[in-house]
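Interim report to the steering committee. The following record documents the input for DNA primase (294 residues).
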Amino acid sequence: MIEVTKKALNTSLTANVQGTNKNIINSNYIIKSHELIQQGFAVYLLSQGTNTPYKGSRGHLDATNDVHELTDMFLKYGANSNIGIILKDTGLVVLDVDRHTPNKNGLTSLKKAGITPNFDNEVMEKTPRNGFHVFYYIPKGFDIDKINHNPLPGVEIITDKITVAPSIKLVDGGGIGYQHFGKKFINANLMPDWLIELVSNVATSGNTQNGRIPKYSVKERWQMVLDGFTEGERNNMCVSLSGYLLRINVDPNIAYAIVKKVNESSDVPLADKEVETIYRSAYQREKQRRLGGR
């Protein structure tokens, strides 16, 4: 007769906690969260499969950059909780391009606006609904508080907080995860000129798409010609003046000469190479705009 020895139930609190901690350590969510904290981000938890805070929690208001506090949160709510990071005061913003429906396709909206961005070298994440988040650093001197957060249908600039991979979202009854591409968030590139110009158009009251006014008035642009670019606003001004001159059909060579002259007369000029890059970008945008019939 073979005796079967039953293993006694381990009722040791220490052993149970160690077992839980082992599951926590093996969780992709906690590993990713620790990496994000090491990059300098404050992390918060959300209900698994959603962008909703756990009942009784404060969501993003509970964000922490303390590994021990975060681990306690995972122990409380679960090892596979969705995770988000705080963007505010990090210098990062996120370009959110939706592709949910034909009527809300951010890529189509950008194309209609004469913008064909290349995201190959950007830090980005694909969202569960087939959109994507592109992470950018804010250029020095650019006032992110005065931007148009929804410049086009399906295009949004997010500046406060964002859900990140490996979080999942329940879509049509199944869980689909966020997918990270490219480098770490801290290695993101600066906002490109086309995006700066796009979000610098602030909507007039009552309409978020039509009747948009530029960041600088016509009078302010011609004042730049007289006074040069202002330190802290040089990039924005250079972008704005370049685009304006081309849009009013100033000969491209003459427009470039004007922009260079204005920069040279500034108290603290931009580097010649930077002016050339900004102008080339503005020229390509205007060229694409005209080809697109806008």
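The first strand starts at residue 43 and ends at 46. The committee is asked to note this result when reviewing the revised timeline.
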